[in-house]
Specification:
Two copies of one chain form a homodimer.
Chain A lengths: L10 E13 L4 E9 L9 E2 L2 E3 L6 H13 L5 E8 L9 E9 L13 E5 L10 H15 L14 E2 H12 L5 H10 L3 E8 L6 E6 L14
Parallel strand pairs in A: 1-6
Antiparallel strand pairs in A: 1-2, 1-4, 2-3, 2-7, 5-6, 8-10, 9-10
Chain A binds a DNA duplex through helix 4.
Pfam families (chains A, B): NUDIX, WHD_NrtR
Protein name (chains A, B): NUDIX domain-containing protein
DNA sequence: TCAAAAGTGTTACTCTTACACCCATGT
DNA sequence: ACATGGGTGTAAGAGTAACACTTTTGA
C-alpha cells in the first residue's frame, strides 16, 4: 500500500449541483446554474460548475469556492453527494467529488455572468459528461431529504410564513400538501418558533416563524467529516 | 477549468469497511477486518483495508479487489460510503473514497492472513488516520439502512428462518425485537417467499424463507452510478 | 410432560389523511 | 359583503407496539 508514483496521476475535481427556488405566479420551481464549456471535451455544452481541487484546499472548500465564483452567493446548505470515478466518464481519468447545495436568493441577483445560466432542474438539455445523471441523483436526494430533515428552510429567509414553507415543500416534492395537516406536522416537530409579527398581504395576515436553532434533530446522523 | 499539472498530484485511494456477523452462544455481533500497517505513517497501528486506485480501475472495482485480497471473499453488498479528503487527514494529501460492504461468511474461513484480524465493530482500538471516525459513520449507515432496505440478508445464506433474520436485525440495531411483530412486518412487506422446507433444531421446526428477487423495492432510489 | 421456540390473535396507541368548518383581512 | 387564504376540529384508517395465547417439536 505504498504510493507508487509512476503512472500519470488521477485528476481530482469537485462539481456542485446548486439549487435555488424560483417563485412564479401560482407556484414555484427548482432551478440550477450551469456553465457553458469553452474547451474540449464537450466544448459548447452545458456542465455543472466545478473545478480542480487545490492541493491545500479541502473538498468542501472547493465546492464553496466554485459555488461563489459561479453564483456570487454563499450556500445555505452544502453536503457531499457522491464520488464519481468510473474509468470512462471523462478522458484522462478524473474522479469528481460532487456536492449539492441550496442558495437562498430567489431573484437572479448580480448572477448575470457570461456563460452561466439558470435552468429548470426538471427539464435540462443534454449536459456534458455524466452530469444529467448526477443532477437526477441530486434531485432524488433533495426530495428524499426534505422528508426527514429541515433543509427546506435553506431556501427561505430568516422569517417566513407556513404557507411559504409549504410552497417550498410542494416545489421539491412536486405535489400539493394539505395546509391543515402540514401546519400540524411542522408545528408539532418543535423546529419552528412563532414570532409576534405577521405578513400582511392580500388577505388575512399570516404569522411569521423562524427556526429553532437548538433543535438539530433528525438531520440524520453524525456528520461524516 | 483546465487541469494545470504543476503541483504534486493528489493521491486517490479506496478503503472499505467490511462487516460480517459473528454468531455466538446467545446472540450475534458485528465484526470487521483490520490490517496492521507495516510502514509510516501510523506504522504498527490497525487500519481499514484498502489501496491506491489503479489508473484503469473503477472505484468500486478497487473496493472489491482489496476486499478479496483481505478476506478472500466476495461481498454480498457493496456501496460507497463517503469521500474523505481533508487536507490534514494524511501526510501528502490523500483523498480516500470509502466503501462499506457485507460478507456472508460467519466462521473465519481461510481468512487467516498475516497482519489481518477481525475486531468487534463496536469496541475498536485506536486506529490509524481518521479510521475510527469512518467506522462510526459506516455503522450509523448500516443501522439506518437496515430500517428501510433489505440489506440484512447480505449476512444470510440463500434460505433462512425468520428467527435467523431477526437475529441479524437485532445484532445490527443492538436491541431485541418482538418475534411476533417482526414476523408480521417482514411477511407483510412481500420481500420474502416461504419455502416448503423447515429447519429442524432443538424445538419446533421453523419454516425456511428465501428472497423475492423481483422486489427491488425501497432500496432507496436510483443507483448513483 | 415439559421447556422452548414457532406462530396467531387482540388491543391500545400513535400517526396520517381527508375534509368540514370558522376566522380575519383587503377590496 | 364576499372572496380568499389563515387557522382549528374531527373522524376514519394505517401502522406500531405490547403481550396473551396456542402449536409443535426434542428431550
Amino acid at each position: 500500500m505504498t504510493r507508487t508514483t509512476s503512472s500519470p496521476p488521477i485528476g481530482v475535481a469537485v462539481s456542485t449541483v446548486i439549487f435555488r427556488l424560483r417563485r412564479e405566479a401560482d407556484d414555484a420551481r427548482l432551478e440550477l446554474p450551469l456553465v457553458r464549456r469553452t474547451r474540449d471535451p464537450h466544448e459548447g455544452q452545458w456542465a455543472l460548475p466545478g473545478g480542480w481541487v487545490d492541493l491545500a484546499e479541502n473538498l468542501e472548500s472547493t465546492a464553496s469556492r466554485t459555488l461563489a465564483e459561479t453564483t456570487g452567493l454563499a450556500p445555505s446548505y452544502l453536503e457531499q453527494l457522491y464520488a464519481f470515478g468510473d474509468v470512462g466518464r471523462s478522458p484522462g481519468r478524473v474522479v469528481s467529488i460532487v456536492y449539492w447545495a441550496l442558495v437562498r436568493e430567489d431573484i437572479a441577483r448580480a448572477t448575470e455572468q457570461h456563460n452561466v445560466a439558470w435552468f429548470d432542474a426538471t427539464a435540462l438539455p443534454a449536459l456534458a459528461f455524466d452530469h444529467n445523471h448526477i443532477v437526477d441523483y441530486a434531485l432524488w436526494r433533495l426530495r428524499n431529504k426534505v422528508g426527514y430533515s429541515r433543509i427546506a428552510h435553506g431556501f427561505l429567509p430568516d422569517r417566513f410564513t407556513l404557507a411559504e414553507l409549504r410552497e417550498v415543500y410542494e416545489a421539491i416534492l412536486g405535489r400539493r400538501l394539505d395546509p391543515a395537516n402540514f401546519r400540524r406536522q411542522v408545528e408539532g416537530s418543535g423546529t419552528l418558533i412563532p414570532t409576534d409579527d405577521f405578513r400582511t398581504g392580500s388577505h388575512r395576515p399570516a404569522r411569521l416563524y423562524r427556526y429553532n436553532q437548538d433543535v438539530e434533530l433528525a438531520d440524520r446522523g453524525p456528520l461524516p467529516q
